[in-house]
Design goal:
Blueprint (H helix, E strand, L loop, with lengths): L1 H21 L2 E2 L5 E4 L4 E4 L9 E5 L5 E6 L11 E7 L2 E2 L7 E2 L3 E10 L6 E12 L12 E10 L6 E6 L2 E7 L3 E6 L5 E5 L1 H9 L8 E14 L4 E11 L9 E3 L22 E4 L2 E4 L8 E4 L2 E4 L1 H6 L3 E3 L5 E2 L45 E4 L2 E4 L8 E4 L2 E4 L1 H6 L3 E3 L16 E2 L14 E2 L8 E3 L5 E3 L2 E7 L5 E5 L3 E4 L2 E2 L5 E2 L11 E7 L5 E4 L2
Parallel strand pairs: 11-14, 32-34
Antiparallel strand pairs: 1-4, 2-3, 3-6, 4-5, 5-17, 6-7, 6-16, 8-16, 9-15, 9-17, 10-11, 10-16, 12-13, 12-18, 13-14, 19-20, 19-23, 21-22, 23-24, 25-26, 25-29, 27-28, 30-31, 33-40, 34-39, 35-38, 35-40, 36-37, 36-39
């Protein structure tokens, strides 16, 4: 009996000890738990809120969000596990940071519980790249490359720029290049993350000379999410050089060019032609069909990207195209410049600024300070860059969606934190809908009446519409839309909680929607 009792106490003691080790928990805002002998670290990472959150280790490379009190319309936290160097905090034995050109494989395996608790969040893994070997000051002018396995009421930042191996690809500039690959409905993902890195490089969002700093996996949470569980995560990097990949990759501008020639009919170091990229001759890629590529140890631009930007192509099978309109001012590789003072890591959507009105603009519709350089705001072009009155201009929506400052234009000269559209008029009436007065909504050509909608409404695709609603539910969201206004206030491609919507006019919301893309989307939640 004595030996049995001793054995029992010993076993109980071991169980208690193991329980203490395996149930490590942190509720600190930036609390970290080292696991797997220091090879991995868990991070509570409440970077976007002051609400309480706790994570509990499962004793290996998994964890559970044991407490989550978040309730907001932007990302509050990214509880996650990482391997490598995360903002200067390095795990042991990872071999990172390491130049991308020296990496042959980046094997990963990420598994989560199939249980999806109530809330707004995603299931995501990502890696960080930087031109700098030291990441202690962050990843400005680098890249964040994310894969999304699933989400609830939370959508990627930026706009869709193409597809890759079944994933929808989104891009946003948030102080670094933020590239998101979305393929939902999954509880696990595994493979070679270099496939995604190489695709991002081919699109001009990263460079092979940059350093891979880490990979991490977890949950971006805006609201709720308590009980989310990562079962396991692993990551390892192997040598061998960047290499190429076999993919199905498309961009928003589709142009197919099939060639195996090493010669060509007139230039380009790859033998497939030359693109005069805003004054610099650049080889046309032979195999890359969208964005920028890396072929035969040479940086190259795809034919579709060159022609889509209005640049001149000579040689190769492309012949030669000459565009008479002057170029839109587009930076070179990567195509979108990074802000000087970037916001913190963000999703859904990146932080934006609604600057005060005032000033001028050579077209009379305002000025956009585009990453330090003033450009006229277009008077007629509603999306992207335009060419009006013999000068290049940028649409107001493109300027604002990039977080840049707009001054002058229809806003007059008075300071204001939001821009009210002249589509709201005190004298407007509508046909086929409610009568106007101060609640009127004047749409552009082709849309002269309003349709009543309610919470739970969704619109996908191109077109121009005016709607009215007494309620828009808990939130609204949109992406790839040219213009979305509620009671004259610009909410284009923004996630907006009900509490942040503009004030109702006569008890109504008046919504103006205009989109040119078939994958544009607007929704008003239930």
């Amino acid at each position: 009996m004595k030996h049995k009792v001793t054995w029992l106490f010993t076993v109980v003691g071991m169980i208690l000890l193991c329980s203490l080790v395996s149930a490590q928990e942190t509720c600190e805002k930036y609390g970290i738990i080292s696991v797997a002998g220091g090879e991995y670290s868990l991070a509570n990472n409440v970077w976007g809120a002051d609400t309480r959150q706790c994570i509990r280790s499962n004793g290996s490379t998994g964890f559970t969000v044991s407490v989550s009190e978040h309730n907001q319309g932007s990302v509050a936290a990214y509880p996650s596990i990482w391997k490598g160097c995360h903002w200067g905090d390095c795990t042991s034995g990872s071999g990172l940071p390491r130049r991308v050109s020296e990496i042959g494989s980046a094997s990963y395996n990420f598994s989560v519980s199939s249980t999806r608790p109530e809330g707004d969040y995603n299931v995501a893994a990502e890696c960080w790249l930087s031109p700098n070997e030291d990441s202690s000051d962050g990843y400005n002018n680098g890249a964040e490359i994310m894969i999304v396995l699933d989400y609830r009421n939370m959508y990627p930042a930026g706009s869709q720029v193409g597809t890759f191996n079944g994933h929808a690809v989104y891009y946003a500039s948030v102080g670094w290049n933020f590239v998101t690959y979305v393929l939902t409905g999954r509880n696990s993902a595994s493979g070679n993350f270099m496939d995604f890195i190489n695709d991002a490089i081919s699109r001009g969002y990263a460079e092979r000379s940059w350093y891979l700093h880490d990979m991490e996996a977890g949950f971006e949470i805006m609201r709720g999410g308590q009980g989310l569980t990562c079962n396991s995560f692993s990551f390892s990097v192997g040598g061998g050089g960047g290499g190429g990949i076999t993919t199905t990759s498309t961009g928003t501008t589709s142009s197919t060019r099939t060639t195996t020639s090493t010669g060509g009919s007139g230039g380009g170091t790859l033998g497939c032609g030359t693109c005069n990229w805003y004054g610099t001759d650049t080889p046309i890629c032979c195999n890359t069909t969208s964005g920028w590529g890396w072929e035969n140890n040479t940086s190259c631009v795809s034919l579709s990207t060159c022609e889509g930007a209005g640049q001149t192509v000579t040689g190769g099978s492309g012949g030669g195209t000459t565009v008479t309109n002057p170029p839109t001012p587009v930076p070179t590789n990567p195509p979108t410049p990074a802000p000087t003072n970037p916001p913190a890591q963000s999703t859904n959507p990146p932080a934006q600024t609604n600057p005060p009105s005032g000033g001028g603009g050579t077209l009379g519709c305002g000025t956009c300070n585009w990453y330090g350089r003033d450009y006229p705001v277009c008077c007629n072009t509603t999306s992207g860059w335009g060419w009006e009155n013999n000068m290049s201009c940028i649409s107001e929506s493109t300027c604002r969606n990039a977080g840049q400052t707009v001054t002058g234009g229809t806003g007059g000269g008075s300071a204001s934190t939001t821009t009210t559209s002249n589509r709201i008029s005190s004298t407007t009436t509508s046909t086929g809908g409610s009568t106007g007065g101060a609640s009127g909504c004047t749409c552009d050509a082709g849309c002269d009446s309003r349709t009543s909608i309610s919470a739970g409404f969704t619109k996908n695709g191109a077109g121009e519409f005016c709607w009215e609603a007494s309620s828009l539910g808990r939130f609204i969201n949109s992406w790839n839309v040219d213009v979305l206004e509620i009671n004259g206030v610009d909410v284009t491609n923004k996630y907006t909680n009900a509490s942040s919507l503009p004030a109702q006019i006569n008890g109504q919301y008046y919504i103006y929607y205009k989109a040119s893309l078939s994958w544009a989307h607007f929704e008003a939640s239930n």
